[in-house]
Amino acid sequence: MAQAVNAAGAEGGLRLRYDRSSVSHWLSGTRPRYPVPLLIVEVLSHHLGRTCSLDDAGFDERGRAHSPCQVTGQPPLHALAELAGRDADPARREGVRRLPYTVPDPASLSLPRLSGPAGTAGTAGTGGAAGAAVGLPRTSHDASVRFFTGELGRYGGGHTRNTLALYLCDAVLPTLGRRGPGPAPPRPQALLRAARLAFVLARMHADELDHGVSQRYLHLAARLADEADDPVTWSIVIRAHSAQLLALGHRRHALSHAEAATAALPRGASPPARAYVHAQLAVGYAALRDKRNALAALRIAETATEAAEKITLTAGPGSSQTVPDPFDAYTSAALAFQTAETLQRLDDTRSALAALARSAAARSADDRRGLALTHARRATLLLRAGQREEALARWPGLVALSAPLRSAAVRRVVHALGDKLRPGARSAATDF
Known about the structure:
Layout: H1 2-11, H2 20-27, H3 36-48, H4 61-65, H5 76-88, H6 93-97, H7 140-155, H8 157-172, H9 188-207, H10 211-227, H11 231-247, H12 251-264, H13 271-287, H14 291-314, H15 332-345, H16 349-362, H17 368-384, H18 388-393, H19 395-402, H20 408-421, H21 425-429
Helix pairs in contact: 1-3, 5-8, 5-10, 7-8, 7-9, 8-9, 9-10, 9-11, 10-11, 11-12, 11-13, 12-13, 13-14, 13-15, 14-15, 15-16, 16-17, 17-19, 17-20, 19-20
């Protein structure tokens, strides 16, 4: 029990060292500090195969009083307002960011509803130059999605996540009538903007390894995309769920989410969306050693990426982005990174290294986070392939590239690489 709670805490970035005596104390009535009660009920729920509440575990109202807002028992706009409000408040955000990650039940993952004929795009469509079957005009809110996505790539998830949470609370959600019944329900386009901003905020938190709150933003983004009747956005959000599950080691759950994201894509989905979703599907199959399906998914992603880049080239001025988001574009650099992960999981290290070289060469200089992760992954594979000197030669540049970033994910991989390369490398990495 203690080991399971420690492992659940590690998924949320907590370093716990509970042992057998700790469990004895809990049984005798000692209440661990927040958020450990939430971790305990998550562990019990997982092993029992059913939901275990704080009351079931023996924690009274005092334990519940410290539990942050729940996102499943109320309308998504209200839940998003409460979650983002706590996230934007310096006095309350620490509790939100220590929320434990909960492994979802694949059986509870249902495809989004569709108002139109089966296999067609929803009423809201998908925006941007790449969205052919569209209808969502570019507005200031669309520009905000691109802006915050760009900030994530340039400076890391810790740079503007507070600003984005506050922007959601003060500039986006009030326009949707969340403070009371309005004269009319929110338009699909407005719901979709909120969903996409919640998606970007989830990515920022994941980059800071706050997986519990990231998961809750993704959950709300998916619900809002469903209400907006946009299966493309829903698929992109569930694809992000899959990537998060895989990063935390839940391979089968990750594949089930990637398959659900692919199944929900309508025939009219834009090439960037198809490429983004199928690239993750390839990684999911590779994680379970399914080479045939992994390579087949990669081929679909490659074809879609080629089509997406052709659309970007012919869309005219202002269509290109230095740090694209999956709603509008999907680049060959991003696909090459996913290709490398797929091939690495299939034990093809040489081809994975070649894919990482292509990814690094194709990335924009503004995508510092992507460049840092690409170079770190490349150096790690070089080291694994026995090319220690070549990996070591890349170390100074990697540290310099990572220094301006506020990204716990980058810090973790750079520190881990430094430990493997040389005794003095890790101390050099702690300066950023």
